[in-house]
Write a structure and sequence with these properties.
Length: 243
């Protein structure tokens, strides 16, 4: 499963980098094939007679889930067809730049969206994806600097889990962070367009060595880093156990 997801992630990055998709990066459609990959992997463990997995690729639209404060279109929704109720959602994010710069906003949004769903008695699981080194752009999409993910990045999420032990509704039931790497030296480029063009060139020439960053592989509390298979199995077990 882990290799399959990585393969779909590479296809996603390549699609975004193509010249005719230069503005495709900001579209939610960019992760559709990743939703379908997760859908396939969940179906290996969840009882098809009891659970229905809803995703835009299969159902042609995102499933609207009722939250405590507001409805939310879920990337993936899991329904117990026997009880006719949504029992879990999965949210997926792909960060291509400014990972550190947007960390506070990302955490705030995660907490708000998670609380809205889980306070309505629905579990939610999140999957974050980011390159090990990402550019930070200015308003004109010129590179200002580069950020390399390190242990302190993961510690922010671990710290949040430790702080909210008394309120389990504020953070995802389980969180997966996929950190990927490749053989592209993006730090020699000065603009977003140059980086995307180089990714496209590498992929066309079949020179793209796309892989997980093996410097970080661990599971601590509810946080999983580059542990895709374990994460998928655990969330399926959690869904079925609670039911």
């Amino acid at each position: 499963m882990k290799k399959d997801f990585l393969f779909e992630l590479e296809k996603t990055i390549f699609k975004i980098s193509q010249p005719n998709h230069i503005n495709y990066e900001r579209s939610s459609k960019k992760v559709d094939i990743l939703h379908y990959a997760i859908h396939r992997h969940l179906s290996l463990y969840l009882d098809k007679e009891k659970y229905k997995i809803c995703s835009k690729v299969i159902d042609k639209k995102e499933y609207k889930v009722e939250g405590l404060l507001f409805d939310k279109k879920a990337d993936i929704a899991i329904l117990n067809v026997v009880k006719n109720k949504v029992v879990a959602t999965i949210e997926l994010k792909l960060y291509l730049s400014s990972v550190q710069k947007n960390l506070k906003n990302s955490l705030s949004n995660m907490i708000g969206e998670t609380a809205n769903i889980q306070l309505n008695d629905i579990k939610t699981f999140w999957i974050l994806n980011a390159r090990s080194v990402t550019p930070v752009y200015d308003e004109s999409k010129k590179v200002k600097s580069f950020y390399k993910i390190n242990q302190s990045f993961f510690d922010k999420y671990l710290d949040m889990y430790n702080k909210i032990k008394s309120n389990k509704y504020l953070m995802p039931s389980r969180l997966l962070i996929n950190v990927y790497d490749d053989n592209l030296d993006i730090q020699k480029f000065s603009s977003k367009r140059e980086i995307l063009q180089e990714i496209n060139n590498f992929e066309i020439k079949n020179n793209f060595n796309f892989r997980y960053d093996n410097n970080y592989i661990f599971n601590d509390n509810k946080l999983y880093v580059n542990c895709y298979d374990k994460f998928i199995k655990k969330i399926c077990e959690e869904i079925m156990y609670e039911e």
